[in-house]
Amino acid sequence: MGIVKEIRDLVEVLSPIFKGIVQSRRQRATHGVVLRRALSKKTRLKNEVFAAELLTRDIVIEKDDSTVVRIDRRNVTNVVISTDGKKALCEEFVTPRQKSLGKRDDEYHQFLMDPTRKGPKNVDLNDLPIRWASGGVLSIVTYQSRKWVPLFFRDIRPYGWNVSLGSSERYFDERGVVISNLEEELNNPWQFIAREFLEETLVLSRSPTSGRNESKLFVLPFWQGSDSEQKKLQFASTHIKLREKYDHLRIIPNEDSKIRAHAATTQMALQIESDRGAKTGVTDVIVCLNLLELGIEVVKVITYEFDDDNYLLDGEILEFRPKELTRMPVGLISVSYLQSVFGLEKADSTYTLGPQPSVRVIQPIPQEDIRIFEWDILQRLAVIRGEKDPVGTELRRYLDWYDKFGPNFLDERDRPWTGNPSRLFTPATVKLLNLCFSQCDSTVLAESCT
Predict the structure, then answer these.
(1) In 85-194, beta strands by DSSP E
(2) DSSP letter string, 298-362
(3) pTM of the entire predicted model
(4) How far is C-alpha 438 from the geometric centre of its chain's CA atoms?
(5) Which helix H or strand E contains 212, and what residues bound it?
(6) CA atoms within 13 A on the CB side of 209
(7) What confidence tens digit (pLDDT) does each residue in 390-428 have?
(8) Residue 393 dihedral angles phi and psi, to the nearest 5°
């Protein structure tokens, strides 16, 4: 009887623990975290938008004359597939210890920034499910005789000006059947880096008008596919169709008008070890850790030129039913301003409160140092005013943006202006700019252009 009683007591103690584990797993699945093996299914999972592995092995930073960041993909068991999944992970692993994680986050960033600090450093993932893979492009653009960085304004947490970033994902045909190899993408960041940039960055020859609008083709130095594949990505039929349907913009690629980008060199590289032990590497990148979002970003810095009349549009869409244009406000912020704020070892800034915080810089952005492209701001206003029918969640999303950030984009008469631009930046963007100004050659960043 004694043994039986001990077993019963043990079961009584452990049952709530096991129940909590099961509930936690169910909750994660509901919110967009699934087992890695679920991606063996050849069709889209419920709520699947992207597919980022949750690393279980430590990330290793090795510094000598250059910096190598090592990613170990072995023993991965879980994958996050949606923004809700990312949010749920942050609530579970970040929110309860945001202050201590912030200190660790800063420690790793300062190690990457400080040229005098050498040797290996482990990023302990024993208690942190860091997402792999995510990244994009940081552009240095010559426009109207000055140099600028294109940034998109993110109106969900973390709020603020954001580099064009995105996650690894599976591709599907019109029937929802997988047509891409996720394993290749997770081992070769060039694929999603190029894809995110090409999909989200749409450059028109001039300001949008109803009817025909010409768009310029990018020529990327690190693109590894065919010209036709690149054109298909840049002019994704879904986005082009949505622009024509809802904005009456017929966007036509101009084969004779191309933007030739050039890659900047850095002293950073990334090495990825697959679950099968194979190793691949990419060089001349910038890599930053972002523990408060459970992320690691790998970014390529490129330079190119805009004509004076060129116009930027956000190319992102939301995979809802029906599909929606994201319509993120997009702008150019001068390199001179960004360098004055983020060119120092430590920016004059502070984190906002709450989960998935933003970074608020102290120094205002002068009007001459920002150029905002107004088209999608005007479309948001038209939906809010009832002059344009909302699609899906548009009205709710735009009202939320208007209430939170209206004064940063609109004057007292609700006309677009740049007199009070938001000083919020996403943490990843702050780190990437900080590293860019320390890593890239001064000629890439020089304000005067001859």
Answers:
(1) 119-123, 131-132, 134-143, 146-154, 160-162, 164-167
(2) EEEEEEEE--TT-EEEE--EE-SSS-EE----EEEEEHHHHHHHHSSSS-SEEEPSSSS--EEES
(3) 0.90
(4) 21
(5) strand 211-219
(6) 5
(7) 999 999 999 999 999 999 999 999 999 999 999 999 999
(8) -90, 10
